[in-house]
Specification:
elongated, 17 strands, five-stranded antiparallel sheet, alpha+beta, four-stranded antiparallel sheet, 16 helices
């Protein structure tokens, strides 16, 4: 039986790694090849794509569907698009360092080690410190951890809700005061409750525009785009505003839900990641081409010999035009380059090394401009946000730090009013109601409500210079010692009391003498000495001089 074969293709399609046969319609494969210059690829089989192709980038369709100048207020636009915006921000923070960095920086400077109340009653403060050890409802951290969790949700979701959980039974026995705080993300309160006509953005408001209740999901709805619309009353339950704190920054009058802080930075973050991804893709593609190999064309004799040879895949053998089996042609290939390898080239072959283009001197300035836009959108100086302090001296840094410190103070003030102070007031009232604490004589319960909270002080660039400047201010009577202590995020009354306590311990331990200006009454009050002990001390330290 004769084998079918077609006239071999006279053009050659050559790969530098191995001769690439091309099947024809007869089932045979022509052995003719081409000497076109092709790249040698090393360990790369798939075409790479730019990483971090954001879902929100596709959803926004390159900003073509952005509303421009439609006059819609934030109050209504947020309610309508709240779920989509929050989902975009959450995805960006989870997957992208540029999006997560502003949140981390704001937490580090805003919360730090935690914000503490300013209270002069030592018994109440001792009770507070015991309670803060287990303040979180999930029992995962102390009150500083709860503050950080609330602050993060405030930034990422634009708002958060703090549920005051009053405990009973065995749980209450483990707490200094039977109360814990549970942080709920913004998704837990729906923006739409069509089955409740009086609700607005998941809230009930009385005729004086005071929020009386919230509608809260019984279970987390997930990151669904429609998760903010409750479909039945069985999905939610009503919580009094006395138990559920709402932490949000109202960017426009009338807004009832918060706007994520990263909303204005999303596009710039996507642009920067796309630029990085495109640059990385270009580098990968060019770097994977080790070299270009140019093979010489076949001679006339070689072409004539191969023109009559074909390969039969069915038998795995080579045949000539007379259907006679012949030896397989010599394969012409070059082994892929590896570390320390020496390539053996066919006779007449040439190697041309690749020289991929560099990013150029426009890459760094462009990235810096994008970072500056991201920093501006979240009101964090780029030097603090990305650690870019190139070209800064200490005076310029100090000016930038003071500006950022004012911004942090503003954020802390809002956070204290919406979260810290209400939690403190609930703690004090419950401690009083449970009989765990009573106001000192001459004071009332109201004297210990609505106290100030102080946070960790801003770091100093030159500590010695800072302290010297404070002393100069005090000596010139431009400030008091209490002013300096407050700047450092502490309570002057607490510092003075602790200094006195340290002095008393040092005196009792014999490490320091009693100050010369202390009267007998002060010694009795602070050290508890009797009159005879004070007299012995005076005789020992001030002996009567003999008349000469």
């Amino acid at each position: 039986m004769s084998r079918k074969r077609t006239q071999p293709n006279r053009s050659r399609s050559t790969a530098t790694m191995q001769a690439a046969p091309v099947p024809n319609h007869s089932g045979r494969i022509s052995m003719m090849s081409s000497t076109a210059m092709t790249p040698v690829s090393v360990s790369f089989t798939a075409t790479p794509t730019a990483r971090m192709d954001y879902d929100f980038g596709r959803a926004l369709a390159d900003r073509k569907d952005f509303a421009r100048g439609n006059g819609e207020a934030v109050a209504s636009a947020l309610t309508r698009n709240h779920s989509s915006i929050v989902s975009m921000v959450r995805y960006a923070v989870r997957m992208n360092g540029f999006a997560a960095r502003p949140v981390d920086v704001s937490v580090a400077y805003g919360i730090g080690k935690g914000m503490s109340p300013v209270c002069s009653d030592q018994k109440l403060m001792k009770l507070w410190k015991r309670w803060t050890k287990r303040a979180g409802a999930e029992c995962l951290g102390d009150f500083g951890f709860v503050q950080e969790q609330a602050w993060r949700e405030w930034w990422i979701g634009g708002e958060c809700f703090a549920y005051l959980r009053f405990r009973t039974g065995k749980v209450a026995e483990r707490l200094a005061v039977p109360m814990q705080v549970q942080i709920l993300p913004t998704e837990m309160v729906p923006t739409e409750t069509p089955f409740i006509s009086d609700a607005k953005a998941g809230q009930l408001v009385d005729d004086q525009n005071y929020v009386t209740d919230f509608y809260v999901y019984k279970e987390h709805p997930g990151d669904r785009s429609n998760g903010y619309k409750a479909t039945s009353q069985g999905q939610v339950f009503k919580v009094s505003s006395d138990l559920l704190l709402h932490v949000m920054k109202q960017n426009e009058a009338g807004a009832m839900r918060g706007e994520p802080w990263l909303t204005r930075a999303l596009i710039k973050i996507s642009d920067l990641e796309r630029y990085y991804g495109a640059e990385l893709t270009r580098k990968i593609l060019t770097s994977n081409i080790a070299y270009w190999l140019k093979l010489p064309d076949l001679t006339d004799d070689e072409k004539a010999e191969l023109a009559d040879v074909s390969f039969d895949p069915a038998t795995g053998k080579y045949y000539n035009g007379q259907d006679e089996e012949v030896q397989a042609p010599i394969e012409r290939f070059v082994a892929p380059a590896t570390d320390g390898s020496v390539a053996t080239l066919p006779h007449g072959a040439e190697i041309q090394m690749t020289s991929p283009a560099e990013s150029g001197n426009t890459f760094a300035p462009f990235v810096r401009e994008i970072k500056l836009a991201i920093a501006s959108s979240v009101n964090i100086p780029m030097e603090f946000l990305f650690g870019d302090v190139a070209g800064l001296n200490d005076r310029i840094y100090k000016g930038i730090a003071q500006q950022f410190e004012r911004q942090i103070d503003s954020w802390r003030r809002d956070f204290n009013a919406m979260f810290n102070i209400p939690v403190w007031n609930a703690f004090v009232r419950l401690a009083y109601a449970e009989g765990l604490w009573t106001p000192p004589a001459g004071t009332t319960l109201d004297d210990f409500l609505d106290v100030d909270f102080v946070g960790q002080p801003f770091p100093n660039l030159h500590r010695a210079q800072e302290v010297a400047s404070w002393k100069t201010e005090v000596d010139a009577e431009f400030a008091t010692n209490s002013d300096i202590i407050r700047r450092q995020g502490d309570d002057p009354a607490r510092v003075l009391a602790e200094r006195l306590s340290d002095l008393i311990r040092n005196i009792e331990s014999g490490l320091k003498p009693i100050p010369d200006h202390w009267t007998d009454r002060m010694i009795s009050q602070n050290l508890g000495w009797e009159t005879t002990e004070i007299a012995e001390y005076r005789a020992l330290t001030n002996p009567v001089k003999e008349n000469t």
